[in-house]
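Hello,

Our lab assistant flagged a job as stuck in the queue for most of the afternoon. It eventually completed. Since we weren't sure the result was trustworthy after the delay, we are filing this so someone can double-check. Below is the sequence as submitted and the structure that was eventually returned. Let us know if re-running is recommended.
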Amino acid sequence: MPSTTTGLTVAVTGPTGTFGYGLMPLLQADPRVSKVIGIARRPFDPAAEGWTKMEYRQGDVRDPAALREACEGADVVVHLAFLIVGGSGDMTRAINVDGTLNTFRAAADAGAERFVYASSIAAYGFHKDNPVGMTEDWPVRPADKLFYAQEKAELEHLLQQEAAERPELALYLLRPPVVLGPHTIGGKTVFPGPLAPLNKHLQGMFRRLPVPVPAAVPDIKLQFIHEDDVGRALLQCVVAAGPPGAYNIAGDGVLSAVDVARELGFLAVPLPAGPVHAAARAASKVPLLPSSMQWVEAFSHPAVMDTTRAKTELGWEPQYTGLEALQDTLDS
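-- returned structure --
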């Protein structure tokens, strides 16, 4: 059966999250897409966002029957629903791992041709032997502690197994780094917890000061991507612009924490990254580390990807550099 790339019906879980806001306007504008089914636990009005192609279907990824009903008639299923922080371990796993597998199986049962999954750079783990400039051929391996990275790596392996059993459903995996943009959840959170309401005010204050405040900042390497560029990559998968498989995506340019500090208005003084990586590795080994603190492991080793395959095989090009993605987040 030839692949369908016109008159598409696209089902999307989690359409009102950060990734959804990057993808939905593109699906709305693309003449190859005839209909969009938005699957979410809570009601929302697609028309209020200008998404006139979309039909809302209430569905929880933990409910296989609801997913099968919502995916009925879909040519492509895009799975974006995923918990990053919060919730109990059992609930998080039920949504992230079981929910993803439920969605893949619902797509297969519905006769969809493509399943597009938003994975993460975190799937590679933060291992000391990870090269700087990882290609898609580098193995995905569970992190030591960070549940998000563990689940992303596990899910890639599980989805590959599922896809081998259901070869009629082509599997696309995207691995973005930190995603920024106007709709980024937590993207502007510099100060945690009860200080979070001060973020916007303090960031603006520091950026307006006539004399920057000095700050010693470790020279930790970072990649960012704008939510709109994630949407463009998702769209390329939806329309089968390249072969199925895994694709690294990131804005051009490797930044550092020093660049971030300068954009926030600080006079950043670079410090060697080595001690911070070592401290993060030590902290990540603390027993019974709360899930919100497990993210310290992400600073234990540089995580930098090569994006050549997405550009050459998927035909994707980022419209924002990593620095521009950061600036757009702070300015919005």
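-- support follow-up --
The delay was a queue issue, not a problem with the job. The result is valid. Confidence is low (pLDDT under 50) at residues 186-202. The two ends are 45 Å apart (CA to CA).
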